[in-house]
Design goal:
The complex is a heterotrimer.
Chain A (H helix, E strand, L loop, with lengths): L1 H13 L5 H20 L1 H4 L30 H37 L1 H16 L2 H12 L3 H28 L2 H8 L4 H36 L11 H12 L5 H27 L7
Helix pairs in contact in A: 2-4, 2-11, 4-5, 4-7, 4-9, 5-7, 6-7, 7-9, 9-10, 9-11, 10-11
Chain B lengths: L1 H12 L1 H18 L4 H6 L6 H10 L6 H15 L14 H36 L4 H15 L2 H15 L22 H7 L3 H38 L2 H8 L4 H37 L5 H11 L2 H29 L6
Chain C lengths: L1 H33 L9 E5 L14 H10 L4 E3 L6 E3 L2 E6 L5 E6 L13 H14 L5 H4 L2 E8 L2 E6 L6 H5 L28 E7 L3 E6 L12 E5 L3 H10 L4 E3 L4 H7 L5 E16 L9 H9 L3 H8 L4 E3 L14 H6 L4 H10 L8 E7 L8 H13 L4 E7 L2 H9 L5 E6 L6 H9 L14 H10 L5 H19 L2 E14 L2 E2 L15 E2 L1
The chains are: A mainly alpha, B mainly alpha, C alpha+beta.
């Protein structure tokens, strides 16, 4: 069954030109291994991430792969469990952003008029506002928690989806087959579905790239203390708590979670780049 | 030209609703947050309720919400009065802080912009001219990698290597305590040169290198990609082919292509400055850089309504201004924009 | 043909750019490496990460600003360096009426402000009335106790109090009672005013958040300071640490991290002085919120904490286990909790919880709150260790939560939090300040614990008004033993220690139990 499914997928991947193919494979490898780490956390993590299991400041060894932090918790276990929070927040915020951004973009692009102008101004204001400060403000009001962090990140990225969908809708709207559908008297919903099918590629690319960005925003929020609460493991939080110890030479406490953040974000970005290459969507001015 | 002035006026007037929306949003947000500036300062101390009331009254917090809303807004618009700080220290004009913090952010932004542009330009042009080669692939990977570099990680890494181990640069702040630079523009590098104080200049330079390097590297990836993609497109375009067909020497053609590819990129970079202003907050936090982003973040803790509202309005205004400038440049350069 | 020229162009282009970059880098390197090494300035330089908030005693209410004020101004009395005893300062003598409600102070003659303006009793009265009128943060230290203050002549100040206050002297020693220069705005907070008072130093320059330069006050009546002082404000603990390591500052004070202190103590050119602190850290329990209204639950929580572990791991040793709200070293202190329950006792905790009806199937659910930055970044570690310790009992499940300071305080005042960590820095040094604000039902609403016991109220009110110290001591001891340790609305954890790191050639730094540093005895060998 798995083989049956994988062949078309493998074929799809193989059809990519280089260097996009390598980027796609590398990106998928990173993302999938992180996801499996998150799902299998209880089996992969050797210790309880929130308890003191050994002496503090232990450098990486075979039994403590990434050493221990300043209170004696195993850094590797914290990384493994921390992946759950990151993926949850990012997935939730992407879902929320798309749920609002895509339909609003469609409506705006298709109907135009006053609705379009009002929505555009609102979206532009949100877009212009420094995203991090906006996320901080919302998270501060709602209180620190992964769900609230997801909500605040979602708000920040709605304009991204909105703008892109609206732009593409405007383009696609002119195309003859859409006009044909309208002339034939198809309902708005049908037209929307048709437009959507045509912009799926762009949505996919924007999705990967904004997820890569959302990972950094989530890390920023938890770095600033607005996501999970200690001692829940989270990469951004661990990065922050390890910062003062960097000076004393205990680099693994902050650098391990730090590098994981970059790696995961890189994974999604590579996928996005590869896809954009494949669909010949280039970012241009 | 009447069309252009009308265009400018229309675009300029869009700044107003943007500022209004943001101000209202922040105003509501602040009032929804638990606590107020008095509570932030009093904390867990025993203060008799009568005194608490008095302190609230002195801060103007007893007036009805709508009155507070319009009082502040009109104060800024009509008198340029951004109010007084409500917490620690109390009673200082907010504008003093704003004029102090804004140049810090601007200086960091400009320095990072220079770094990002230099790196972006070199790598973007190099990649486009050598398209498809190993170098190009490396450059493309570089552009993606920088996109995903988390600022605190890069910042801390640089702090550790260049600041602590090699002791070349300072890891936080703008200036070593004890060094004085008479304030002319607020941009330390400029002011120290104007005052002829070379050691102050060096000191300020050693402070700004690490943060601008961090922010610059992270942003350069986007520029690399932009320049590379644009240059590739231009190099493949018809009029370049026409030039080649006419027998114009290659190096002249390439220079011409670069010029053409670069102009729209510059305007886009101009737009980026506005984003840089906002994105600097992580850099400001990692390097304890006393800029506007960090100011807002600090003041949120104090619930200092006046400071936060003032900073947000100022910020929205500057962003709006930058967008306006970029829009005008677009209008002038891109014939597709109608005005 | 095309390919070759392209390569030529790109090569020359890149070559030009590389040359530009190299030139810039070379210039930069020249400037940087040419920078002269920082020469140790002659005044003594103190580095801090705390900030000065308001240079106005009518509103300043944080420790570091109080320290600066205590050096540029002086009160009628002050603490002897290194001790908790009070000695005459601006006042040379004083007396109390028999009913304890009238205090009379005699000022020294020839007192002058830093610019030569004479200081008389009228200035004292003016300053105190000013504090009462402005209603700033710390004004309650005056308003709660003083009814009227008068100056019958140039050298006499008379305080009429609202009720007998045996610890009034400790209040007089606090900055809100310091006489200020007439230049201070009479009706409003003057945050940046540098005119100061009549202390050993005057402000030569003040650049907010950058530095303060203090020079000896030529008109000071007492021993002249041995050196000028420069206070520099650093952005964070790491920069301060680098500054003291690199010789940029002579003294690093407030506030280095415990791990930094550990490392610095190993350096040969630095010495670390330990200052016994008077600040305490404790857990608050909301006695009105079930299941914490059950005394057995609170007692169990108190017994199940391992103070030694918390101090050694979370604080790297920068604290002393505390078994009462009254700190060690203050009269009337008793180790109330230890006397009653012993130290760390998991079995006892289990028994108490079983008595309260909890079991392995029915665990006690505790929400433990802390605030991540206000007390430093060790808070989260204390919370994590407490969670581990309480869960080791086997009958408790802990969820750790946090809120940023203002939100935290707001929740606490509204009585919304069940179990939470707080700290207390004393306003004045008397056991009254460690017990009344916590246990007196009309004064402890800020703490959100809802503790109200009529007997305790009576005892505390009595103790704060009788003059006989031994009687007061007995009352306070009873309150600690019979009520605090029994009812457990608060669980004291530790008493803090502060550290001063100084260069080997600096002398005269005396650790003061009041945690304010006097600068005037400091000198360089």
């Amino acid at each position: 069954m798995a083989l049956f499914l994988s062949t078309p997928i493998l074929g799809f991947i193989r059809s990519f030109p280089q260097p996009a193919k390598s980027m796609l494979i590398l990106g998928l490898a990173i993302v999938l291994s992180t996801m499996s780490m998150a799902i299998l956390a209880p089996y992969v993590a050797p210790y309880d991430p929130t308890s003191r299991v050994y002496i503090e400041f232990q450098p990486p060894t075979w039994s403590y792969l990434m050493g221990t932090n300043h209170v004696g918790m195993d850094v590797f276990s914290r990384i493994v469990w921390g992946s759950r929070v990151v993926l949850f927040v990012v997935a939730a915020s992407a879902a929320i952003s798309m749920a609002f951004g895509v339909p609003l973009g469609l409506i705006s692009g298709y109907y135009g008029g006053l609705v379009d102008r009002v929505l555009s101004i609102i979206m532009d204001s949100i877009y212009a506002f420094p995203s991090l400060i906006l996320a901080i403000a919302v998270a501060a009001v709602l209180g620190p928690s992964p769900l609230n962090a997801a909500i605040s990140i979602a708000i920040v990225y709605v304009p991204t989806y909105y703008r892109m969908v609206r732009g593409e809708t405007l383009k696609v709207k002119q195309m003859p087959f859409i006009e044909a559908l309208i002339v034939l008297g198809c309902s708005d919903a049908t037209v929307f579905k048709s437009i959507l099918r045509n912009i799926t590629q762009t949505i996919l690319v924007v999705f990967s790239l904004s997820v890569a960005d959302a990972i950094l925003t989530e890390a920023a929020l938890s770095f600033l203390g607005l996501s999970v609460t200690w001692p829940t493991p989270d990469w951004g939080l661990d990065l922050r708590s390890g910062q003062p110890h960097l000076l004393n030479g205990y680099w693994w406490i902050s650098m391990c979670p730090g590098l994981m953040i970059i790696a995961l974000s890189l994974g999604f970005a590579l996928i996005g780049e590869a896809l954009s290459d494949y669909f010949s969507i280039t970012t241009k001015v | 030209m009447a069309g252009l002035s009308r265009y400018i006026v229309i675009r300029a007037s869009l700044i107003v609703p943007t500022i209004l929306i943001l101000y209202t949003f922040v105003f509501i947000l602040l009032r929804v947050l638990p606590g107020d500036p008095i509570l932030a300062v009093v904390g867990t101390r025993y203060i008799p309720p009568a005194q608490l009331e008095e302190m609230r009254r002195m801060a103007g917090l007893d007036k009805p919400i709508l009155v507070q809303y319009f009082d502040y807004l009109l104060g800024v618009i009509l008198r340029g009065d951004f109010g007084k700080t409500l917490a620690s220290p109390v009673g200082k004009p907010v504008s003093e802080y704003l004029w102090e913090r804004l140049p810090a952010t601007i200086e960091l932004t400009i320095a990072s912009f220079i770094v990002a542009s230099l790196i972006g330009f070199i790598t973007g042009v190099g990649g486009a001219l050598r398209r498809g080669s190993r170098l190009d692939t490396l450059i493309r990977i570089y552009s993606i990698l920088t996109y995903t570099l988390f600022i605190p990680v890069l910042g801390m890494g640089l702090q550790y290597l260049l600041g602590l181990k090699l002791k070349l640069f300072y890891i936080s702040g703008r200036l070593s305590p004890g060094i004085h630079v008479p304030k002319v523009t607020g941009l330390l590098l400029l002011d120290s040169l104007l005052a002829g104080d070379l050691s102050a200049f060096t000191d300020a330079l050693r402070h700004i290198v690490l943060p601008s390097l961090t922010l610059g590297i992270v942003l350069s990836g986007a520029y690399t990609r932009l320049i590379r993609n644009n240059l590739i497109e231009v190099l493949n375009s018809d009029f370049i082919r026409a030039y080649r067909a006419r027998g114009i020497p290659d190096h002249r053609v390439t220079m011409y292509a670069i010029k053409n590819a670069f102009i729209p990129v510059v305007t886009y970079m101009g737009l980026q400055i506005a984003m840089l202003l906002g994105g600097a907050i992580l850099t400001e936090t990692t390097f304890s850089w006393p800029g506007l982003g960090r100011f807002i973040y600090e003041r949120i803790e104090y619930r200092d309504y006046s400071s936060i509202q003032g900073a947000v309005i100022l910020f929205a205004f500057i962003v709006g201004l930058m967008n306006l400038v970029v829009d005008i440049m677009y209008a002038l350069i891109d014939p597709r924009v109608k005005y | 043909m095309g390919g070759k020229s392209l390569r030529c162009i790109s090569r020359s282009l890149i070559a030009i750019l590389i040359v530009i970059v190299v030139i810039i880098a070379g210039l930069a390197a020249y400037f940087i490496l040419r920078a002269p090494a920082p020469v140790a300035p002659k005044p003594i330089v103190i580095g801090v990460t705390d900030k000065v908030t308001d240079l106005d005693p009518s509103n300043a209410y944080d420790f570091f600003t109080w320290e600066v004020l205590s050096n540029i101004m002086e009160g009628l009395v002050r603490y002897k360096p290194g001790s908790l005893d009070l000695e005459p300062a601006l006042a040379e003598s004083w007396s109390v009426s028999s009913d304890g409600m009238t205090w009379t102070f005699k000022l020294r003659e020839g007192l002058k402000f830093a610019d030569g303006t004479p200081l008389t009793a009228g200035d004292v009265v003016r300053s105190i009335n000013r504090v009462m009128a402005i209603s700033g943060d710390p004004s309650w230290l005056v308003v709660e106790f003083v009814d009227k203050v008068e100056a019958p002549d140039n050298y006499t100040v008379v305080f009429k109090l609202k009720q007998p206050t045996p610890f009034f002297l400790t209040l007089i020693a606090t900055p809100p009672y310091f006489p200020v220069h007439p230049a201070y705005a009479p009706e409003s907070i003057d945050s940046d005013q540098t005119a100061g008072g009549a202390g050993p130093y005057k402000i030569a320059r003040f650049q907010r958040d950058v530095e303060i330069v203090l020079e000896p006050n030529p008109y000071y009546y007492g021993d002249k300071p041995k050196s000028s002082i420069v206070i520099r404000f650093y952005a964070d603990a790491t920069s301060l640490r680098l500054a003291i390591e690199g010789g940029e500052v002579d003294i690093a004070w407030r506030t280095l991290r415990p791990t930094d202190i550990e490392e610095l103590s190993k350096k040969a050119d630095l010495k670390v002085i330990e200052v016994p602190g008077t600040f305490i850290r404790y857990i608050c329990i909301n006695t009105r919120m079930p299941p914490f209204d059950n005394k057995l639950v609170r007692q169990a929580l108190a017994v199940a904490i391992n103070r030694t572990e918390i101090i050694s791991i979370a604080l790297r040793g920068a604290g002393t286990p505390l078994y009462s709200l009254v700190p060690i070293g203050m009269w009337s202190h008793v180790d109330a909790f230890k006397e009653k329950y012993g130290d760390y006792n998991v079995e006892l905790a289990r028994n108490l919880l079983r008595q309260a009806g909890y079991s392995e199937e029915n665990k006690l659910a505790v929400e433990l709150w802390y605030t991540p930055t206000h007390y430093g970044d060790t808070e989260k570690d204390i919370a994590a260790l407490l969670k581990q310790q309480w869960e080791a009992v086997g009958l408790i499940e802990v969820t750790v939560k946090s809120a940023e300071w203002t939100t935290y305080v707001s929740y606490i005042r509204n009585g919304q939090l069940p179990v939470y960590l707080l700290g207390w820095y004393p306003d004045y040094l008397d056991p009254d300040n460690y017990l009344t604000p916590f246990l007196l039902s009309t004064a402890n609403s800020w703490a959100g614990t809802g503790y109200a016991n009529e007997t305790v109220d009576e005892l505390l009110k009595q103790a704060s008004s009788i003059v006989d110290q031994s009687k007061r001591e007995l009352t306070y001891i009873n309150v600690q033993r019979l009520y605090l340790a029994e009812d457990v609305p608060y669980i004291p954890i530790f008493q803090g220690k502060l550290y001063i790191v100084i260069r080997q050639d600096i002398e005269g730094v005396v650790p003061n139990p009041i945690m304010l540093m006097y600068y005037w005895p400091i000198y360089r060998k």
